[in-house]
Design brief:
By secondary structure, the chain is mainly α. The chain has 14 helices and no strands. 80% of the residues lie in helices and 0% in strands. Helix 8 packs antiparallel against helix 11. The longest helix has 39 residues. It is globular, with a radius of gyration of 22 Å.
């Protein structure tokens, strides 16, 4: 490795790790005396019921958003690349709209649009928030999956699968999806990070998600807020690594089965 690459690697690592180290040192201070070092703030956090409850809501919302987004966008983008490539610029333009429309405007509009819907949808985070998060994750899902589809020969894979007698669902799930697994995982990572950190929509729609609880602790408790921030960082990265490990395991298993056949 060239010396210049090592220098830039050290600078990048320093830029990435210094905020985490500073947050860690701040979280180890006593909430009563302000002295270092104690793990009492972490003990206080993990014994809070609201911490686990809000974290559970956000994690389940993230998983629900990922599943719904993949179920909608994978077949759609596959069909666009296969049959109607002229629609790709139109969908790409629509995918930019969530970047242009501020979340505060979007949530006010959604609250008006979904007014009068069943109570299980409008008054529950699993209905209203998941819909809003699918829209919010639309750009990340589309551009990640689109890059994955553009990296493979969709027409050749589809024709080969169809010539062997495979149905459309079989072609999509056993031929196309394994070839865009990396793009699907990247889109899932981005969606997970978005949902775990989204504050505006959850706050205005009065749902008590993990970012709402984090902000509440930050306003009332100084040192425990740093502990929660560091724990949320570790939990998000742990979830991403778990998703990556699960995706690779499934991909390796599929490759072995395909080879055996």
């Amino acid at each position: 490795m060239a010396p210049s690459a090592v220098v830039w690697l050290v600078i990048g690592g320093f830029y990435f790790l210094m905020p985490l180290i500073s947050t860690l040192l701040y979280s180890l201070k006593s909430n009563q005396t302000g002295n270092c070092c104690t793990a009492g703030n972490y003990g206080w956090v993990i014994h809070q019921h609201e911490f686990w409850h809000s974290l559970q809501i956000s994690v389940l919302l993230a998983l629900e958003t990922i599943v719904i987004s993949l179920a909608i966008f994978v077949p759609t983008i596959y069909w666009v690349h296969l049959k109607v490539p002229r629609l790709r610029p139109v969908i790409a333009f629509l995918a930019l709209i969530p970047f242009v429309v501020p979340p505060i405007v979007m949530v006010v509009g959604l609250l008006q649009v979904y007014k009068g819907t069943p109570i299980w949808f409008y008054a529950q985070p699993w209905g209203f928030l998941s819909t809003a998060y699918v829209i919010l994750a639309f750009p990340y899902m589309f551009f990640s999956l689109d890059a994955g589809f553009r990296s493979i020969d969709v027409h050749t894979l589809t024709e080969a699968s169809q010539s062997l007698g495979a149905s459309w669902p079989t072609t999509l799930f056993k031929v196309i999806l394994p070839n865009i697994r990396a793009a699907a995982l990247a889109a899932s990572f981005l969606t997970l990070a978005i949902v775990m950190g989204e504050y505006t929509i959850a706050n205005l729609s009065a749902f008590h998600t993990f970012p709402i609880y984090l902000q509440y602790v930050n306003e009332t408790q100084g040192f425990p807020a740093a502990a929660i921030s560091l724990l949320s960082f570790c939990i998000t990265w742990g979830a991403m690594l778990s998703l990556l490990f699960f995706g690779r395991q499934r991909g390796a298993r599929g490759a072995v089965i395909a080879g055996a056949r």
